[in-house]
Structure formats: structure tokens, C-alpha cells
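Reminder: ligand-aware prediction takes two inputs, not one.
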Amino acid sequence: MAVMQTEAARAKTIEDLIRIVKEHDPQANTERIREAFAFADQAHEGQMRASGEPYVTHSLQTAAYLASMRLPENMIIAGLLHDVPEDTTYTIEDVQERFGEDIGSMVSGITKLGRLKYRGIERYIENLRKMFIAMAQDIRVIIIKFADRFHNLETLDALPSKKAYRIALETLQIFAPIANRLGMGEMKGRLEDASFQYVYPKEYEWTMNLSKTTREGKREYLQHVLGKTQDLLSQAGIQNVEVHGRAKHLYSLYRKLLRHDRDIARIYDLMALRIIVPSIADCYAALGIIHGTWTPLKGRIKDYIAQPKPNGYASLHTTVFCDEGEIVEFQIRTPELHNLAEYGIAAHWQYDESKGQTSMSTEHLPHAEWIKQIRELNSEVANTNQYMNTLEEMKIDIFKDRIFVFTPKGDVIDLPEDSTPVDFAYVIHTEIGNKCSTAKVNDRIEPLGTPLKSGDVVEIMVDKSRKGPNPDWLKFVKTRYARSKIRQQAQVTLKSWISGFMPGGDV
Ligand code: MN
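Here is what comes back for the chain with manganese (II) ion:
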């Protein structure tokens, strides 16, 4: 079973792609893949990416990601051809004629996803809706779209910064949550980490440095625990054990830090040790051995094997007081569960060495229920507002803990749940936060402390003569940023007020 690749596969030429394909699927019909490449190459002839490279490098790299996920030939070919109808003189019919119904329909699905006509909230809903429609029809389309998006993110530097920001934000708001909901942990992590620096550049730097220093400081220690764990398990007679360290994805670490007052000492899974053992019984045996050696922290033993997460994730987790009192998290799973944790729903199209090519039904997947709901939703709901409300009612947890509200111009602002117009104002601009006086939510004047909901359009009126924020706002603001700015301003105001009484005095 392939272990997680930390570096994404690279293909600069068709030979690189063929090599990756053969590594994972020795029986693939590489002639068809070469044919598709030649067609794409000719169709995109003369077109350049913003980076200055020939356009087809993008098609090739999209296909390479799919190949490295061990996905079948038809998906790789659809990856090669995904931009042909959109950007060249060839049509979907041309693709269909040359490469057949199945590939034609995937390419058509991807092409439809690409066309968005609205802006602002309308665009957001349209986008979401198109993703759901594509998903209900053929999940493979979404998987190809993820690969396409991942390469676009990797080449964002070549785009004007406003456009880069929009694409990265859309990835964090729509693509990554859907990847997560489909159990595609590795894809979700990669999409988020590639977007992070464009949406929150300062926070990205901060998280990156924090993660790096902390990991470096712990490297030797973890090496020691890793070796000891391996010895313990083999002494207990558990065969074919693999233990490796896994560093938490940066964006997910950042989100967790925000929930824990930015205190890295409270993040126990910054570095986790992953134990891969042959069977489910071995998983529980390994857990027993770890608990027999080190004391587990209360409330942190999680049996996601008996009770998988809604997205299908299954493993045993425990956090223990390890040697020298250091806190270490362990994640225990079988190779099959490991593969499912990385690839989620995509695992069902993967090449399986023991059985040959598979094309399993998705009906019995943990994600199947959610996809069924999406299908029903798509067929029932025609209008966009109703769509948004129904999503809310279904409590689809893809946007758990976050809300998305809109400026009057239609820009999307992403806030923690129960945020208020004051939080919103501080996100727009510190001065707007400091001087906000009235808020309109969906065109109605509402108190500044009103909790906002996803889809609200928020407008802030400022009072320029206002000295600074009202300390009472601290009672209801939800974002750390707003809280710190209000405190800061309150101090400044107090200082200048006092200094007014001091002879010549700055305080
Ligand atoms: Mn593309």
C-alpha cells in the first residue's frame, strides 16, 4: 500500500506522466493517454499560461496528480482534456468522438463547473450549487476539478494579486470543505495550505515559523519515541508495523491555534505519531500497549474505528504523557483505513493491486448518505435563496463553525459563528471598526451586537467624529482581532484623556 507522498507528483513531459501512471497502474493503456496528450497539445497550441509556460503543462500536471492518486486511465485522460472545450476551438462533441462517451461526459462536467456568471453572493451560491450538481451527477468530475485547482494554486504567483486572492479564498470557502466532506484528507490539506498564504499572508508566516521551530525542537525526541514504539509493538508480536511522524497541515494548525488562544503548547497533535498495523485487532492491541506504557490524557481517547467521522474517517487516536512528561498524540490505523483517510471517496476508483482495476459502486460508502441528500436537494430546489436556506436546514457541516457574509459590493467575508457587525467592520478595516456607529443587515438597521448568519449582506456606517470603539463591544465581539483592537484603542483613548491633564505630558 502506498504511503502518503509528502511531495506532489511532477510531470513536465508526457514521459513523466507515463512513468507515474505505470508506477501505480501497470496495466493502464498508455497509448490512449499519449493520444489524449497529443490532442490536448495540438488543441492548446500557441496558448500560454500566465506563468509563460505552454498551456498544456497545466493539463499535464492536472493529469499527473490524478495518476499519483492511482486513479484510472479515463480520469487521467479527462484531466488532460479538461480545458479543451473551454479554451480551444474544439468542442465537447470533438472530445466525445475521439475519446468516447465516458470521458466526454466528465470533460463536459468540468467545463460546466468553470462557467460562472455572477459576482458576490450570487457567485458564491452559484459556485456552490454547480459543485453540488456536478457531484450529484459524477463525483469523478469534482476529483478532477480538485486536481485542476491544485495546480492553479501552485501557479498563483503569476496572476495579479486580486485574482490570486479571489481564487485562493474560493478554495478555502468551497473546495476544501467539500474535499473534507468527501473524506479526501490529503487533498483538503493541500488545497488549504496552497491557498493560505494568499488569503492570510501574515498569519501564514506566523504559523509557518511557529510550526517549524516547534517541530525542530522536538525532532530528536520524537525519533526516540518512534523507535521505542516500534520496539514495543514488535516485542508484542505485531508484524509489519509502520510508524512515522506526521506534521499537521499548516492551515489546519492555524485554525486550531485560533481556537486555543494562539497557544502552541495547547496543540497536542502538532506532531503526531502514526502507527499502521495489518488488522483492526492489531489497532486495538497497539492502543493497549501504548496505554500500558504511557498514561493517556483524560478525554482524548477517540475510537473513530467504532464510530467513524461523518466523512468516513476511521482511526484510533490517543494522547499520552510520554517519556519525560512530554505530550504526544498517536493515530493508529490499518493500511486500508490509512488509504481511506488520505483519499476518501477517491479510493473507490483507485487501482487495486490485488483485485485489478476497480470501479465500485459508491452506494455503501460513508459519504453516500451525504451525496444522496445533495442529489435530493438539487432536484428539489430551484431558487438560490431557498437553496441557501435548505443547506442551512440540512446542517451540512461543510461550513462548520464558520459563516460567510457579504459586503454591499458582494465581497465574501469569512467569520467565526455568531460574529457581529463589529467583527465584520474590523475585518473590513481597523478604522471602520473603530468608528462604526450603525449597521444595516440585509438593508435593515440592527444593533451592532446582532449575531450574523451566513448569507447576510452587511453594511457599516461610520461616525467620523467618533473618538474610538465602545469598550462595551467587548461583551459581544467574537473575533480575536476585534477584541484586541478595541482594547488597544480603549487604552489609547484613556492615555490621551489623562495626558490632557498632565503638564506637557505624554503618558
Ligand atoms: Mn484547468
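The first strand starts at residue 242 and ends at 247. Confidence is low (pLDDT under 50) at residues 1-6, 502-507. We will return to this case in the review session.
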